[in-house]
Amino acid sequence: MKTSQPRLSIRGAIGLGYAAVCAIVTGLSYATWIPFENVSRRPKSTYKYIMFGLGRAFMRNLSREHEVWAMPTTDSAYETWCKKNAIVPRSDVLPDGTKAHWLGSKDADTVMLFFPGGGYNHPMTTEHVSFLNEHLTQINAKAPSPSRPILSVLILSYSLAPEHPYPRQLIQATDILHHTLSILELPPSRLILCGDSAGGGLIFCLLSHLLHPHPSNCVPRPPKLNVPFKGVALLSPWVNLATTSDSMRRNARKDGIEDISLARWGDAFLGGKERDAWNCPSVAESGWWKSLSAIARNVFIVVGGDEVMLDDINDMSAVLESECGDIIQSVVIPDECHNSPLVEKQFLRFDDVAMDTEYQMWLERLLWT
Hints:
The chain is an alpha/beta fold and 369 residues long. The protein has 2 domains: 8-70, no CATH class; 72-368, Rossmann fold, CATH 3.40.50. Helices cover 42% and strands 12% of the residues. It has helices at 10-33, 46-60, 64-70, 74-84, 126-140, 168-183, 198-211, 246-250, 259-270, 310-324, 340-347, 354-367; strands spanning 91-93, 99-103, 110-115, 151-157, 191-196, 231-235, 299-304, 328-333. Strands 1-2-4-3-5-6-7-8 form an 8-stranded mixed sheet, sandwiched between helices. Helix 7 links the parallel strand 5 and strand 6. The radius of gyration is 20 Å and the shape is globular.
């Protein structure tokens, strides 16, 4: 929790003040500039236009010291949410100390293995947990018997860059899958893999590893799946660590994230390593994903039309549709930003978020077919 975070140095405090001033000035300038801004270059919502501009400026000027000081760990975010909602926290601990946190019953018919986003540099937020719990509650409200819930969620608390660069996250993703299959004795047919943003990117890294085992001895061998996963859900997945696509420029003033921050986070994640198919799925060679249907029965990819990552995700979806066929369902949501179920619904408190609705509809179709 906040008390466990390191103290901010004097230099850090000055830098944080500078970042805040830059954000406020940017927000005021955006508010002033609205009448002159090309409507095709900004969100339809004036509120989003100002808040996203303010947020981009703030994140652009944060140092790693600021990020570590301001953001609680994934573990403490989970504990804080549980305390606020009078829920007893329940966690599994892997042999290396990595934790995975439960929402719902371990005896549910289906377990969702969730990898939270955060640019590989930032922890899960309490808003992530609220998002997961909302959908979990909606699903289990339709269970024939309260004693036999339909769905539960297991959240991987993976390590963050730059302190822990790639392939640390892939190692942890592989370990939690081994734990789920071997220790919890859950067959893949009862598992859903889900991730938002960088968490979606990590899902792709794991799928790559399952299809083509990583060449490094430091990464555990992937488990052999006798049946496919029940489903895979990727919400605004970070599939390309490069920031060169046209939508990075075209949607620069529409989205809440920007290429400058993404480049910094991506470099920290790689830790000096080259991009490859196990850390950047978009660079995989032709035919890399053609056997995906052997490990996943259904793959859902959703992206907002205002995202800077739009072109990268659309290109990735096109490759998957070409190589994997009908198991892929890709959806573009007009006028919504990156990871809108978190950003627009949980943070900005918008009620009508189509990406959130599409995800819920996909989840219900998957669980009742």
